[in-house]
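Why should sequence recovery work at all? Because a backbone constrains its sequence more than one might expect. Tight turns favour small or flexible residues, buried strands favour hydrophobic ones, and helices have their own preferences. The token representation captures these environments compactly. In the example below, the structure is given first.
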């Protein structure tokens, strides 16, 4: 199965282009509480999307799912409503999935799931060292549909200099194995366009398949809409970019099938020989 590709935008025209390019999910990013502080000085996207964006995107898509990243679990203050109210509004706006970011404890996840109450899909974003430490207990909670490893914040939490150190030091593989054990679909990080990225996208794609990942986010470096003079130019680039990823995935899948077939042939040969041994 090809990876489910996700793209963050609240622009209806760009969301339509992403859908035409066969992007599977559009992410509306409402997370802002605490984000500017912990990512201070980093070249990261802080979107400040809104409930109205969910309505607009949802009603202009035909196939792609709408994923909404809410804020971490919080109480109401003079500046923002409570998590319960925020999640209620997100569900009413038509989100297909809600992603909980920056949680640390079992209780936060239980609270989140109770607020969602099976009215839409639950998507957990593991991006704190505390969530990793509690991963087994968290995954035993009923009602989790999918999980994602957030490399930016998790690398900050572990005091790494570069987010892909979590691939090289085994952290991502460790978590993927746990997710696999609990039989919950999982993905990680973001991906650039083929031929682009500090670590080439081709190498990251291979890791997704090696580790059994099912989804990833198309990063800002994949397609920065501010670089294009018009929507038609953006559309052509976006479609080609996704096609390049899909074509490369097909090459990876061929190699996976080669080794899978070899394993099957070995098993058949061993069984045949065993039957003829007295």
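From this structural description, the recovered sequence reads:
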């Amino acid at each position: 199965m090809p990876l489910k590709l996700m793209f963050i935008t609240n622009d209806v025209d760009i969301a339509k282009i992403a859908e035409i390019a066969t992007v599977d999910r559009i992410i509306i990013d409402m997370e802002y509480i605490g984000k500017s502080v912990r990512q201070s000085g980093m070249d990261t996207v802080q979107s400040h999307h809104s409930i109205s964006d969910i309505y607009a995107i949802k009603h202009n898509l035909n196939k792609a799912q709408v994923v909404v990243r809410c804020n971490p679990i919080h109480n109401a203050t003079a500046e923002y409503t409570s998590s319960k109210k925020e999640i209620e509004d997100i569900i009413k706006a038509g989100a297909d999935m809600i992603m909980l970011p920056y949680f640390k404890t079992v209780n936060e996840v239980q609270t989140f799931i109770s607020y969602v109450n099976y009215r839409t899909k639950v998507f957990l974003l593991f991006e704190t060292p505390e969530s990793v430490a509690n991963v087994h207990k968290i995954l035993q909670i009923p009602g989790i549909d999918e999980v994602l490893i957030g490399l930016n914040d998790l690398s900050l939490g572990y005091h790494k200099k570069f987010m892909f150190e979590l691939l090289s030091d085994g952290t991502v593989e460790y978590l993927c194995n746990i997710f696999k054990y609990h039989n919950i679909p999982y993905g990680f990080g973001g991906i650039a366009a083929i031929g682009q990225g500090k670590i080439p996208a081709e190498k990251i794609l291979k890791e997704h398949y090696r580790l059994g990942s099912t989804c990833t986010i198309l990063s800002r470096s994949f397609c920065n809409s501010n670089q294009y003079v018009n929507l038609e130019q953006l559309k052509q680039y976006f479609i080609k970019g996704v096609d390049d990823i899909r074509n490369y995935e097909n090459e990876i899948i061929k190699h996976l099938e080669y080794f899978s077939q070899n394993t099957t042939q070995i098993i058949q040969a061993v069984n045949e020989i065993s039957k003829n041994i007295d």
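A few observations help interpret the result. DSSP finds twelve helices and eight strands in the chain.
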